[in-house]
């Protein structure tokens, strides 16, 4: 077993691009589901419009990176309005269905050949759109080494910016959810008619929550493609949304740090299981006939699924959740 | 029998109801709520069809009627939780028809629900704080700047604690509302409604499913509201309680107002008896017979009112069943 590569892989998985982007996306989802009770099964759609809004602005219109990111985020505002205006006055399940459909429509449109002139079709954009971000890197141009872990300057720059972003967003969410505004959201989650009877404009608050969570999702999308230095439509499939749900439940719903912890642990588990399976396979412990090298990626997802099932059985509130909250039937 | 026999009504307002004729839709000397031609149909069923109704300011009005009479639907319409097919109504002179529920609450008319709506995963004190209106920190931008709302929050908390003491819920202040008993939830819902400092309180079966020990305290709180100058409209099944606290009673049957008057008058009204029992009684021949018949019917009425809903469960889920463990 190669312990050095295990440590290095684990570090990059737990603190790398994916963990950052997934953490941010799930913070947005936590606003929707954890605090407001909105069922958003299309968070990937918000990531997609953020990523494409940014990349298209840069590639086709030469917009500066930061301004382009703002454009990407305003696309998420539009998507939230489009989803929320017709559904937020209806029962919760209408939003759920609309979000699934909208996210798939977004993914199919950006990947279609019809708009390929703008979106690059199924091959998307290469990394050039993110040059401005990496050109702004103030770090010395040499790879950093911490024991077995080595980090390139670009990667280090992204991680610094990325985790700062996670911290700032988490702080804002923390401020919001402990305010009277956040109290209305939690009230809506429990029973929106009760909140209405107390003179609160429930529709407006739900709309605000949908927009804020969606914009945070779009930031995650921008972070993801900037970190990966590629924009591909198929990244934004339904499975992405379900990973966000998984890690949110894993970390703990309606806790500010739940999604952050969930993202780190999810990717850590991915990296560790993959390392163990791969070294096991190359050492001959895992017979090739049973599991081929190419199937290892799938096996680790199965293991994560199994782990989540065990967690739901033995710690249903997630890692930092409050068990008492599960004690009563909310409806 | 007269309205004077009913114990406890605020003398001035109750006396003013003295001259009000006991007919459906009777005009009141000082109405706070006036509704006209309010109707609501569900498919072929006319749930509410009220021609005219007035609620007197500063007194306790009971809304009674058999299950399915349309009392809850009327509440929903008046408070903006359901949309009326026809009709208009004013609250303190302001037209409210078609206004969303939160605006109705802002106007000062706040309601509770037949099926209690405690916000389970919020602590009792947070339930209370949510009830306060005009909170600065409810704006998204100010929410992020705690110094803009902290002072107000402290004042709200103080008021909430006071109310919790009054409703004897203070020991449960930091518990999740979901852990309260059914009766305690009813109390919490009422206390929470009062946080908005309403002028009129509409209570949909506040006593349903509450154990007898808490009932007295709930009754006391309802009377308190009147002492504090609020107008109360409440739905109740138990005739003893209606007798005990109501200054005026409005009877609904099959969507319409069929009778109104002081409790004693209404309970003796053959139309009301018909509405509840669905049978027509022969006109009494002698006075003695009339008295006997009345006594008979009254005792049957009381039984009907105070027995737990049995054949009515289809229209309204049983509250009693899930409460008070
Ligand atoms: N949402 C609804 N859809 C269809 N029928 C309804 C609905 N709400 C109430 N009803 C019907 O309207 C009638 C009046 O109901 P309700 O107002 O709850 O009566 P009450 O509160 O006086 O017992 C009942 O026949 C009930 O079944
Ligand atoms: Mg009812």
From TrEMBL, chain A:
Entry-linked CDD domains: TM_PBP1_LivM_like
Pfam families: BPD_transp_2
Membrane topology: Multi-pass membrane protein
This protein's UniProt keywords: Cell membrane, Membrane, Transmembrane, Transmembrane helix
InterPro entries: ABC_transp_permease, LivM-like
GO cellular component: plasma membrane
UniProt name for this protein: Branched-chain amino acid ABC transporter permease
Membrane-spanning parts: 12-31, 38-59, 65-85, 94-116, 156-177, 207-225, 231-250, 257-277, 297-314
GO molecular function, one term: branched-chain amino acid transmembrane transporter activity
Annotated localization: Cell membrane
UniProtKB/TrEMBL annotation, chain B:
A single GO molecular function term of this UniProt record: ATP binding
PANTHER family recorded: CONSERVED COMPONENT OF ABC TRANSPORTER FOR NATURAL AMINO ACIDS (PTHR45772:SF9), CONSERVED COMPONENT OF ABC TRANSPORTER FOR NATURAL AMINO ACIDS-RELATED (PTHR45772)
Entry-linked SMART domains: AAA
Protein name (database record): ABC transporter ATP-binding protein
Pfam family for this entry, one: BCA_ABC_TP_C
Species this chain originates from: Phytoactinopolyspora alkaliphila
Residues in ABC transporter domain copies: 33-279
Ranges of biased composition (kind: Basic and acidic residues): 285-306
Keyword Transport found: yes
Region (Disordered): 1-28, 285-325
Alphabetic keyword roster: ATP-binding, Nucleotide-binding, Transport
GO cellular component: plasma membrane
SUPFAM superfamilies for this protein: P-loop containing nucleoside triphosphate hydrolases
């Amino acid at each position: 077993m190669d312990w050095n590569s295990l440590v290095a892989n684990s570090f990059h998985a737990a603190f790398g691009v994916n963990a950052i982007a997934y953490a941010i996306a799930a913070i947005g989802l936590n606003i929707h589901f954890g605090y407001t009770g909105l069922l958003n099964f299309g968070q990937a759609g918000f990531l997609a419009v953020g990523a494409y809004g940014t990349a298209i602005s840069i590639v086709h219109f030469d917009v500066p990176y930061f301004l382009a990111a703002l454009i990407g985020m305003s696309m998420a505002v539009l998507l939230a309005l489009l989803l929320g205006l017709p559904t937020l006055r209806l029962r919760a399940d209408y939003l759920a269905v609309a979000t699934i459909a909208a996210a798939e429509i977004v993914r199919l449109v950006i990947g279609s050949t019809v708009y390929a002139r703008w979106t690059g079709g199924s091959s998307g954009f290469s990394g050039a759109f993110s040059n401005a971000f990496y050109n702004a890197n103030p770090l010395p141009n040499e790879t950093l080494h911490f024991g077995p872990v080595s980090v390139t300057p670009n990667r280090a720059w992204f991680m610094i910016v990325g985790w700062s972003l996670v911290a700032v967003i988490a702080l804002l969410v923390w401020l919001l959810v402990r305010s009277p505004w956040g109290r209305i959201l939690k009230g809506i989650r429990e029973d929106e008619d009760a909140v209405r009877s107390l003179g609160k404009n429930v529709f407006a608050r739900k709309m605000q929550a949908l927009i804020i969570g969606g914009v945070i999702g779009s930031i995650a999308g921008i972070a993801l493609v900037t970190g990966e230095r590629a924009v591909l439509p198929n990244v934004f499939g339904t499975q992405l949304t379900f990973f966000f749900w998984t890690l949110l439940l894993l970390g703990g719903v309606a806790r500010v740090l739940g999604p952050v912890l969930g993202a780190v642990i999810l990717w850590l588990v991915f990296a560790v299981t993959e390392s163990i399976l791969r070294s096991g396979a190359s050492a001959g412990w895992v017979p090739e006939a049973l599991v081929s090298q190419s199937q290892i990626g799938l096996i680790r997802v199965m293991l994560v699924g199994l782990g989540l099932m065990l967690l739901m059985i033995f710690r249903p509130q997630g890692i930092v959740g409050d068990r008492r909250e599960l004690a009563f039937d909310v409806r | 029998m007269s309205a004077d026999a009913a114990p406890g009504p605020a003398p001035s307002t109750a006396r003013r109801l003295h001259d009000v004729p006991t007919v459906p839709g009777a005009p009141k000397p000082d109405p706070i709520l006036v509704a006209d031609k309010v109707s609501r149909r569900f498919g072929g069923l006319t749930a509410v069809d009220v021609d005219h109704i007035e609620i007197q300011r500063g007194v306790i009005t009971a809304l009674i009627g058999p299950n399915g009479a349309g009392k809850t639907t009327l509440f929903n319409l008046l408070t903006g939780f359901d949309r009326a097919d026809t009709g208009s109504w004013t609250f303190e002179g302001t037209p409210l028809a078609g206004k969303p529920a939160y605006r109705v609450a802002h106007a000062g008319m706040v309601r509770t629900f037949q099926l209690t709506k405690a916000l389970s995963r919020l602590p009792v004190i947070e339930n209370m704080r949510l009830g306060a209106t005009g909170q600065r920190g409810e704006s998204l931008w100010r929410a992020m700047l705690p110094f803009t709302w902290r002072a107000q929050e402290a004042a709200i908390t103080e008021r909430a604690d006071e109310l919790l003491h009054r409703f004897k819920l203070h020991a449960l202040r930091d518990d999740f509302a979901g852990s309260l008993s059914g009766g305690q939830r009813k109390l919490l819902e009422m206390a929470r409604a009062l946080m908005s400092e309403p002028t009129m309180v509409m209570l949909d079966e506040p006593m349903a499913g509450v154990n007898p020990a808490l009932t007295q305290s709930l009754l006391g709180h309802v009377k308190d509201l009147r002492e504090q100058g609020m107008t109360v409209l409440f739905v109740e099944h138990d005739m003893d309680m209606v007798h005990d606290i109501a200054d005026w009673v409005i009877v609904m049957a099959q969507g319409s107002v069929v009778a109104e008057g002081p409790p004693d008058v209404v309970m003796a009204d053959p139309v009301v008896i018909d509405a509840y029992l669905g049978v027509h009684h022969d006109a009494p021949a002698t006075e003695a017979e009339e008295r006997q018949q009345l006594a008979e019917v009254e005792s049957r009425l009381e039984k009907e009112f105070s027995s737990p809903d049995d054949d009515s469960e289809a229209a309204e889920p049983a509250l009693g069943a899930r409460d008070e463990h």
